[in-house]
Amino acid sequence: MSLILPKRNLSRRRLLQLSGLSGIGLLLNGCGTSLLSNSVSQISEPLNQRLQEMLLSQKPVPEFSITDIEPDKLLVNTFDFTPKIDPAQFQLTIDGEVSNPMQLSMADIQKLPLTSMVIRHVCVEGWAAIVQWGGVRLQDLITLVQPKSSVRYIYFKSADGYYESWDIASAMHPQTLMAYQKNGEPLSADNGAPLRLASPIKLGYKQSKWVTEIILVSKLLPVKGYWEDQGYEWFAGL
Ligand SMILES: Nc1nc2c(c(=O)[nH]1)N[C@H]1C(S)=C(S)[C@@H](COP(=O)(O)O)O[C@H]1N2
Ligand SMILES: [Mo]
């Protein structure tokens, strides 16, 4: 029963309404002191044209059904330690080459539309698992911060020191989520709570757990990712 989540398939038009001034104002009522609501008054522009066009060209990957979930197959794969994060104190910072840098609490994030998907997680070490992830679309968070048209890449910093970089098109994909639920339950600390990346289009090592900061940039740095900097492939598409 807890596996069945409401699935909100918002049309693009509806999402733009939500991202617009009036929609966000309604959506975020009641979080008057957060930085998100302070900056919503500045959100009046649509997404830049490059990213808008990118969204139109993206096709979703077929999903599995709830009954396909393999609860025991997702192995915890943590290379250093599991950071202890108090979800009430947690703030996600989104900055870089953007017009509207933001800090969002979990309460702010959970007011945005919830997307749930059942996909296969594939680890390069030779195991895979069908998992349900629930969370906010990364494209919605990116839209909120208003990226400059120069943006091509996105960095993710994690509380355990892990770091990753992605191409912006993969980050804008409709099934790339910042997840806070796994298999219909709140995400556990081991699986990346309070917030982690989840996407059917990238290998497991691209899917950072315990993400604390998202940085939008025009150029890749010499430092690309925890595993990539040890020789693993950077794009790591599935
Ligand atoms: N911050 C952080 N994110 C991470 C890792 C990690 O060690 N630290 N391991 C990666 C790898 S290799 C995989 S397969 C998945 C595993 O996710 P899980 O532990 O929730 O199964 O997390 C990825 N994200
Ligand atoms: Mo992995």
Automatic annotation (TrEMBL):
Superkingdom of the source species: Bacteria
All copies of domain Oxidoreductase molybdopterin-binding, residue ranges: 82-219
InterPro entries (alphabetical): OxRdtase_Mopterin-bd_dom (IPR000572), OxRdtase_Mopterin-bd_sf (IPR036374), TAT_signal (IPR006311)
Pfam families to which the protein is assigned, alphabetical: Oxidored_molyb (PF00174)
Protein name: Molybdopterin-dependent oxidoreductase
Species, as recorded: Halotia branconii CENA392
Source lineage: Bacteria, Bacillati, Cyanobacteriota, Cyanophyceae, Nostocales
